[in-house]
From TrEMBL:
Residues 80-302 form the Alpha/beta hydrolase fold-3 domain. Belongs to the 'GDXG' lipolytic enzyme family. It holds the Pfam family Abhydrolase_3. It comes from the Eukaryota. One of its GO terms (molecular function) is hydrolase activity. This is Alpha/beta hydrolase fold-3 domain-containing protein. It comes from Gossypium gossypioides.
């Protein structure tokens, strides 16, 4: 007799975990937003000014990345190393929501974007995603030294202008990778800047904004609590240094050798209060940080293609965010 597996965790339509340890990431929420979580196939030929390809970074681990190459004539492009969001538990580098934004960003700057396929929790608990992000940076270093080769990057990439960028939990990965990189010699690669966008910085204790700001499909209290419980090492709370770099378990900010930061916050983000705590910590530690606030917007609004296409305010704020990133990268 086959015993039926039992559901032990269900997270806001995004993910279900069963008692046998299996995980189902089939979207079960409103069908009209399902397309944003659909994979987009890579295309070596240029479509709307961008070509994409998937490459394997590490043959042993199978770690992969998606590369976006602009068609524009340019001797060398800055390189943006991207870490996707999803509470460490869901989403992939090839999802449409990232494709629509990062093709646009790559074309607007122009820059090469390298988006890492981060291993998801709960199968791979933290610091797995951070390890993957760091491995991708070390891979770029190996390319810059000529120890390995990736034609698009070696031909078109400027390894003297490498930037980290991450959405939501990917912003946490940005902080962690930037922190680790400060303790090693990256030469001849230069980490020119870091851009955490609406990072998942929280505390075990609820913040005022968590209690007062509206939920969205991209962030609910259910997602904050359950995703992080699934992702964090056994026995850890949200006060863990990866999710709370401003907490007492994290290393003092003044001991970190961080690159210049463009720190992006949305005015109506549910976790805005704890995100701002991190910003204040950076300022107190005399770090080079620029604050960029998107007014009237919620968490990861710029990934919502439907809102961009139907709401002029979201469209305008998305354009402003892209322009802000472009100015920051051109400055560094």
């Amino acid at each position: 007799m086959v015993q039926e597996k039992k559901l032990v965790q269900d997270v806001s339509g995004w993910l279900r975990v069963y008692d046998d340890g299996s995980v189902d990431r089939t979207w079960t929420g409103p069908p009209e937003v399902k397309f944003m979580a659909e994979p987009v196939s890579p295309h070596d030929q240029f479509i709307d000014g961008i070509a994409t390809r998937d490459v394997t970074i590490d043959q042993n681990s199978g770690l992969r990345a998606r590369i976006y190459l602009p068609e524009e004539e340019n001797p060398k492009f800055p390189i943006i190393l991207h870490f996707h969001g999803g509470g460490f538990c869901i989403s992939q580098a090839d999802w449409f929501m990232y494709y629509q934004f990062y093709t646009r960003l790559a074309k607007s700057i122009p820059a090469i974007v390298v988006s890492v396929y981060l291993r998801p929790a709960p199968e791979n608990k933290l610091p797995a995603a951070c390890d993957d992000g760091y491995a991708a940076l070390l891979w770029l270093k190996s390319l810059s030294k000529g120890e390995s080769n990736e034609p698009w990057l070696n031909t078109h990439g400027d390894f003297n202008r490498v930037f980290l960028i991450g959405d939501s939990s990917g912003g946490n990965v940005v902080h962690e990778v930037a922190t680790r990189s400060g303790f090693i010699d990256l030469n001849p690669l230069r980490l020119a800047g870091a851009i955490p966008i609406h990072p998942g910085f929280v505390r075990a204790q609820r913040s005022k904004s968590e209690l007062e700001q509206p939920e969205s499909p991209f962030l609910t209290l259910d997602m904050v609590d359950k995703f992080l419980a699934l992702a964090l090492p056994k026995g850890c709370t949200k006060d863990h240094p990866i999710t709370c770099p401003m907490g007492s378990f994290a290393p003092p900010i003044e001991t970190l050798n961080l690159p210049p930061l463009m720190y992006c916050v949305a005015e109506k983000d549910m976790i805005k209060d704890t995100e701002m705590e991190y910003y204040e910590l950076l300022k107190k530690g005399n770090k080079d940080v620029e604050l960029f606030i998107s007014t009237e917007m919620g968490h990861s609004f710029y990934l919502n293609k439907t809102a961009i296409d139907t709401d002029p305010v979201t469209a305008a704020q998305t354009s402003e965010l892209i322009e802000g990133i472009k100015v920051f990268i051109n400055k560094h």
